[in-house]
Specification:
4 helices; 0% strand
């Protein structure tokens, strides 16, 4: 009975646990970076407008910024620009992948 407990409870160090979680974290951060990149593109495109709109206000500008942020997140999840994959490929070489059977 006592021989089974160490196998079931297989304790790991915090450093190893963090490195095992690193691939998922790297992918999430890469996707967030891609969303920020898209948001910056949308913001720059909006700022390059030729004339001010009639109903322009600070509240409308704030709403537009929030809309762009959510639109950028959605675009990053649904479109494949390749930025996230390039980041994961570049920075993923030093990351330990988690084993399938813990």
């Amino acid at each position: 009975m006592n021989d089974i407990i160490p196998v079931i409870a297989n304790p790991i160090s915090p450093e190893l646990a963090q490195r095992r979680r690193a691939p998922e974290d790297l992918q999430a951060v890469a996707e967030q970076f891609e969303a920020i990149f898209i948001q910056t593109l949308l913001k720059q495109a909006r700022q390059s407008k030729l004339a001010d709109d009639i109903l322009g206000s600070s509240a409308g500008d704030k709403y537009t910024e929030m809309l762009e942020k959510e639109r950028a997140k959605s675009m990053a999840q649904n479109m494949n620009l390749g930025i996230a994959e390039a980041l994961v490929k570049q920075f993923g070489s030093g990351v330990v992948s988690s084993p399938k059977n813990d």
